[in-house]
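Notes from hallway chat w/ T.B., transcribed later so I don't forget. T.B. wanted the structure written out for a chain they're using in a teaching module, and asked if we could keep both sequence and structure tokens in one place. Agreed to drop them here.
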Amino acid sequence: MTPPNELPLVFGSDRHLVGTLTMPATGPAQRTAFVLLNAGVIHRIGPHRINVKLARELASQGFNTLRFDLSGQGDSRAPSSSGDFTAQAVADIRAAMDHLERTTDVHRFVIAGICSGADNGLAAALADDRVVGLCLLDGYTYPTAKTRWVRLKRRLRGPLLSAVLPWALRRLTALSVAIARRRGDALALVDNDRRFPSREEFAKSMQTLVDRGVEVCLVYSGSLLPQYNYDDQFRDAFAQYGFATRVRSEYRPDIDHSVTPVGAQQQLLELVSGWARTLPQPA
């Protein structure tokens, strides 16, 4: 297979952002481009070079793909003036799309990100109508009563499990409902230093995107056992909302948060590239 064309880029208001554009080796490019974001503080190559591999896989399918470093990360400098982290991340992503519009005449974008990259991708999609797709690994999670039960069941493996199972499930469900009512899910959840929107805020964001026609694929790894640990958890968590069946959600326990094993990398590449092939393209 002919290797893709790759081009280093410098762009942004202060020419402070650095990225790598991966383009199809032959033939015209798709009229939708991908933008790949930093995962945490990791350079734009991504954990274990997953962004490099994904960009080249997508290029083989005809997609121009830009992976770049946000302001102050990797090879990118901080701009002369900036806002808070999320606002600056959104500004950087919009600058990346602006640059691709000028240089490749593409006006539709799909954003892919892991962890904080997922959070930033969601924020950018809400701020910019040019985003027509989101593919996020280990984005925001919202446990259900079953999530807590699966976690408890793992701890209770043993001969007494079958005896206590029905009682424990009833108690756990009742407790979960009581806690949810007391909190009203109004407070944002905090996972270490990562701030989660409330369930209602997240649901509103998802509904906005789906109503706008954005294609959304949410992938959850096996590293999130306390927060996400079974198939269809996303649909269960948001069953009362119209978007629940229109968002693709995948629980992949064999993939870890940093996509370390080669087998996990291949599984993720196949999942994302397969989803990319289903994206509607403009006439």
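Follow-up for T.B.: Residues 5-143+198-277 form a domain with the Rossmann fold fold (CATH 3.40.50.1820). Might be a good example for the class.
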